[in-house]
User: Fold these one by one.
Assistant:
Number 1:
Amino acid sequence: MPAKKSTAVTKKSAKVTSESNNEKLKQFIRARGADFLLDKNISSVGIGYKHVDGKPTKELAIQFTVDKKVSLDVLESIDTTEIPKSIVVDGIEFPTDVIERSYSKAFTIVVAEAGSTRKTRIDPIVPGISVANKRISAGTVGCIVFDKEKGTPYILSNWHVLHGPEGKIGDDIVQPGPHDDNRVQLNQIGKLVRSHLGPAGDCALASIEGRSFKQEVFELNVKAEQLGEPDLGDKVIKSGRTTAVTHGIVTRINTMVKIAYGFPVGEQVIGGFEIGPDENNLPGDGEISRGGDSGALWLFKASNGQPSKVAAGLHFAGEGAGDPNEHAIACYAQSVFEKLAITLTPPNPVVTGDTGGAPGYAPGFLGPVVNVPKLFASKLKDAFKLNGSEVIKYTHFSLAQSKSRRFAIWVAWNIDGDKIKKISRRGIKFEFDNRFTQFQVGDELYSNNRLDRGHIARRADIVWGTEAEAKKANKESFFFSNIAPQMDNFNQGSLGGIWGKLEDAVFEEVDVDNLKLSVFGGPVFRSDDRVFKGVKIPREFYKVIVYVTGGVLKAKAFMLTQNLDELEVLDLNEFKVFQVTLAEIAKRCGFSFSPNLKAADTLSEKLQNAPEAVEDRQPIKKLSEIAW
């Protein structure tokens, strides 16, 4: 209910618009705003300039909007009470202002525009284009943001665009929204990661999978780099899915708005600020926002009238049906970013894996073409896709990453033994490839225990080529996408060291043409892998070494088993390395190798009388036991 006016106060002029008075009013609205909104007729309360004869003055006021203005004798019949002429806040008397106005979330009615690029499937993803939960019509990509801790990139939009009353965390998110293109399987862009609906804002995050992104806003060609605090009279601009680029002026600040979100959510109180049309930059139809603009980012305008790089807020509502007063409502950017724990720039920026066109693993490196493993359908569905491909390229190596296990399915790398460089690892940290951070396991697994961060593609194998190439490969080898957990007494021990010496052993034992090798390696994912710190720990790894000798292609395959039966105790010392066939690895891992590799693997003839189960065979205890 509206606050009652105090009779014992020291009156001061409310025309004073000092920063301290603004702060007092801000705290008052935060503390009392929700109480006022219990009145069914009051739709919002905020800070604005008092209106006289329908026009704003320069007098600061506590501004109420009501669904319907009525005479005093009718108040009781519509279950409301009179709003006082003024309210005392911290000893200062401020006038009130009452405006007839209502609000509704901005996606209820989606206006169709034929041929709009914003409403098509776009790669890379950019702010200002169509997006939505697969169950919802369409809204707008606000901006690309990053997790404050991990640096994971996300799409930021509204709760009612990405989540909705019937949604849940993990829902499929599509771009464009289903209203613009109902082929939801084709247009999936990611998953609903987290969301919030309440005083801090109407906001949500979606992951980015299978497509790249750019931060520049569609048709504005600037990217938000800072967060700002809107003030009355500030000029702002947005780029939305429906009304495209529109201009506005901040007309109310520190506003709490009552919005009906439908069953089962009902009415919610959302904090934000109000934007009215800029009379000097009016859109042709007078509308600064329409249905489908939900989630668009409002940017401040610079003194030259151009969009700045400072974000003001996230658009989430407009005038209600039948309301002739054009206006928009936005959540405060700072509030949204704090609530969702996100930033506009990645924390501790790292190399992103975009190596400036480096080809990654080269299939023709040895002369004969040796392609990367071909994933079976179930594995392909689980693989993260970048720009539509599961093959993620780095300098001298490529990999396919499992979304469910968050480790590489396979890593493929080339070794040029004649061009190896001695590059120090000093000062290089293990870091995320921030194109798909959410699908990598980071340091949280390896802290305070005996698990080592083991390179799949050995660092020493890929630091070759020019000095610049070697340094880039050296750094990229430390991405968590190339790391898998290995027990320290395997990774560092003499017996387990056989695994790390396999590549070197080829050069020692075989006359390798041109001193070149190609290698495939990775973990074997088993359904009964032990769980530690919420992560399934692979207990088997494979490695396939491919080379040419005397012009003939050869392939040798190996399997490592780690004893992880006492994982919680981490008191382990049993590691076994077996020589196996490519067919055995392919069957365990869910992919197939190049046909020419099958002919290059001659071990199957020697295993005719060996036990079918790898674990029942004799392990390799020294390199001389390997059949080259």
Note: The chain has four domains: 19-99, 117-207, 226-333, 374-423+432-625.
Number 2:
Amino acid sequence: MSSEAVDSGARNQKEQIQELLAALGITRVVNVDDDHAQGTQQSKEDVLGAIRAQSIDTVLVARLILPDSEDEQAGELSQDEVLDLVSTSWDDLTDLQRDELTQAALRAQASGGGPVDDQPQDVAGNNAALLALPELLEGVADFRRMSLADWRAAGEALLDDHVPTLLLFDRSFEREGGSATAGDDLVRVVLARDDRDHVHVGLLTHTAADEGRENDIAAEITDGLDTRRPVIVVAKRRLQDQQFPQALRLVLFASEIEAFRLHAVESLKQANIEAIEALRGVDRYLLLAAFEAAREEGLYETDYAMRIAATFARKSLAASLRDAGFVDKVLNKLRNAGAVKLYLDGVPRPAQYDQVQWDEQFETGESLASLASPLDVGDIFKFHDLFGKGRNQGRPRYYILLTQACDLSVRASGRRSNDLTRVVLTELKPAAKGDEGAYRPLKPNQADLGPLLGSAGDLWRVQP
């Protein structure tokens, strides 16, 4: 069972999806996948056998059968309870539900029948989409399943009614005689048309193993495509955990996100231009005064002069970022998307999140050394254990410099006014965890420092 972590948020996922679709008035979702061209085949025994072999996700199976109000119980059911649920509910399921359960079981069986976590994504990912999409989207919107043949026959005409629609294309249609990348062309055709602003489209595929591959496939589709709308690729594996609403939000608000990025970049460019012009216009006497003040305060001289330019840049940037047209056309839409809480509800954070946070909080030793900066409050020192004895058993120790900032201030001629010759360092330690793996609460005399040894590392704390 691979979706245990999902289920506590399963109900929330459906609510989040409903709120996201409602924010854009989307009332129809179309999933085009060759799984929907497999015909009718129903076998309770094959489904039960797959559950016994743990080759289909029992949480997704239980959620498919249970009413929405009981979805939260799916992760708590034992294998025997899921077997009993399927046995007693089989005749009450719709033909589509029995078809899809059987199809998932037979696909897992054909791949060797191993546990879900050991299956390749063309099995686990496709089965997750087959079982999870109907459960998450039916009742939220008009959810339609279409094969490639169905789409070619009626798909484009379906969109002519201008009903706000979300399109999710599979990538590979080999089981219908198409290519492994046929979905790329389907996405291109929709995005290239200028009368499809009411359609939001994403590629939902098992071929994207991670976020990097999602971006690579999107770049392949975008190459040579004349459109202002970004291509968004979503890995089917995101349906196996709590990441699908996060990906769906990106699909729905892709254009606004890119407009947000472009506006921020252009505003920053304009602010820098104005700062440069302001610095060019500064009187030479003022530059000399700034140089003298920097010497008096013990600062690097051009750093001090940059304060003049920074003031102009800050004011220009603040004004540009608040452009009324941007607020009306882009920001208000993004505010609707941001109102659907995802990261605060336990969804895994973006891959770059921790690194950006680390870069904001820490400087590397190499960077500090290259700048020849004087010692300052918050500097961290690494001490190597040369003998490998004592409580650290050879592991390095880390200490932080904590003192009054004024005691360390470098004054004129590069000297400190108090002739400081020594300071006391405070040791940093990894935060202790309890039996359940969670960090223990902070004590009154402790403070969290963050992931000292890298963005993916453990939390460290200081105790003066």
Note: The beta strands are 28-32, 142-146, 165-169, 199-205, 233-235, 380-383, 397-401, 425-430, 447-450, 460-462.
